[in-house]
Amino acid sequence: MDINRIGYVTVGSASDVRAWSGLNTHILHALQAAGLQTVVVDDLESPQLYWPRLKARIGRRWLGKSFPLDRDRSIARRWSEEAARRLASHADVKCVVSPGTIPIAQLPVRYQTVIWADATFHSLRTTYSGFERLARASIESGDWIEQRAYDRSVMVCFSSEWAAADAASFYGVPAHKLAVIPYGANCPPAYADLNAAHSSVRARARTECRLVFIGMDWERKGGTLVLEAAHQLRYQGVPVHLSLVGGAPPPNVMLPPWIEKVGFLNKQMRSDWEKWDALLRNAHFLILPSIADCTPIIFSEAAAYAVPSLARDVGGVSSVVRDGANGFLFPVSEGAGAYVDLITKLWRDTVTYEKIAISSYLEWEQRLNWLVAGRQFVDRLQAISSAASSKSSLQIK
Q1: Which pLDDT score is estimated for 50?
Q2: Is 122:143 a contact under the CB 8 Å cutoff?
Q3: Bridge partners of 309?
Q4: How many domains does the structure of the chain reveal?
Q5: Which residues pair with 214 in a beta bridge?
Q6: CA 305 to CA 307: how far, in whole Å?
Q7: In the chain, at which residue ranges do the beta strands (DSSP E only) sit?
Q8: Which residues are bridge partners to 114 per DSSP?
Q9: Pair (81, 230) in one structural domain
Q10: Strand 95-98 relative to strand 37-41: parallel, antiparallel, unpaired?
Q11: Which of 12, 15, 334, 360 is most open to solvent, judged by the fewest CB atoms within 10 Å of its CB?
């Protein structure tokens, strides 16, 4: 299998850093930085098929069920057909990489496919509350698409052990196909080197403990617990300042002056980027106790800024946040008090805090950046390619 030149297929835009937390774009750039030439096939048109759309409308209105179009076999087939048509003029492309299963599940067999995703369909629909109304037909169709994509792929890479384990147990993906490579941080390097990171950590204010919450889905990301922890810290005498980026509590929840409701920040706008950069550069902790999550990119970005993360040990979070290395993980059963105790301890112990902050930066430097991730991905793919070539040679002899 020649992997020097590959196809890169994604339903959405490969250049829109706002789509899917920018992963479409950053995965592509990571592959290119690792030396692969890429033929990009993106922005696949949504097929105008009558029955799937009618079924979705009827199901939503009369049955109270969800029939998502992207989990419909016929629509997935049309995406694969469009991708194949656009790849046909590139005869040298034999391998196709995709950040998702849907557009490549039904590609012609002449293409060897590779996946780099953050979750399986099964792991999403069994942990995220938004899938509760999913119709049985959509579950069966979605699992069929997922199974077909995994069965035909030569390599199935996930950003967490959690997702890889589900692929193995539910879809039967064999161990020799599986790889686990966490995503990198979707931001430029925050510091020139380790010394600069040290200087930034030591320059953080000691007059107030700055916490940052960054997440759009307030309830799923654990916003209520964050508010409770912040109030308890103030009650115990820790001078907390909390910034809420993205999500916010319901309008009827009154916020004190020391809680800042920042709102959504678009990192492509200079003013928003400067605000985002300053928030992380000056933060003491990122606190994001999600009740369900895959591998949020913000944990990698916090590490890039030498900011320890505080998170619940759910989903794929533990593959990004290593307990005691770039943050701390809490059992789902722990309430706000456990977070308060840890923050209070580290706030009052400057030496220990600086150690975990610098350790966070080293985690970014060594494994949570796209240069490292891209090289690991390509190295694993080349190893599989070499093994396949050797096997073919033996069979010919």
Answers
A1: 40
A2: yes
A3: 286, 327
A4: 2
A5: 245
A6: 5
A7: 5-9, 37-41, 95-98, 112-117, 153-158, 178-180, 209-215, 240-246, 259-263, 285-288, 309-312, 327-330
A8: 97, 155
A9: no
A10: unpaired
A11: 15
Q: Which of 125, 127, 40, 50 is nearest to 86 (CA)?
A: 40
Q: Work out the pLDDT band at 390, boundaries 50, 70, 90.
A: low
One domain, residues 236 and 353: yes
Give the helix/strand (H/E) hosting 68: none
Q: CB atoms < 10 A from the CB of 207, how many? A: 7
Residue 189 lies in a domain: no
Q: Is the pLDDT of residue 295 over 80?
A: yes
Whether 359 and 325 have beta carbons less than 8 Å apart is answered as yes
Output the pTM of the full model.
0.92
User: Cα–Cα–Cα angle for 274, 277, 281, nearest 5°?
Assistant: 140
Give me the amino acid identity at 239. Answer: P
Query: What residues make up the domain containing 210?
Result: 194-366
Nearest to 286 by CA among 211, 196, 339, 191: 211
Query: Looking at residue 258, which CATH number applies to its domain?
Result: 3.40.50.2000
Using CA atoms, how far residue 359 sits from 15, 232, 376, in Å, is 32, 27, 21
Residue type, 2: D
CA distances from 3 to 7, 113, 379 (A): 9, 11, 11
Residue 260 to residue 248: CA distance in whole angstroms: 10
Query: Is position 261 within any domain?
Result: yes
Kindly state whether residues 33 and 176 are assigned to the same domain.
Answer: yes
Asked if residue 298 has pLDDT above 60, the reply is: yes
Residues 262 and 309 in one domain: yes
User: Which of 246, 204, 196 lies closest to 223, judged by CA?
Assistant: 246
Q: Determine the length of the chain.
A: 397
269, part of any domain = yes
How far is residue 362 CA from its own chain's centroid?
20
Q: Are residues 94 and 238 in the same domain?
A: no
Q: State the pLDDT at residue 110.
A: 92
Strands in 119-168 per DSSP E: 153-158
The pLDDT tens digits for 194-248 are: 999 999 999 999 999 999 999 999 999 999 999 999 999 999 999 999 999 999 9
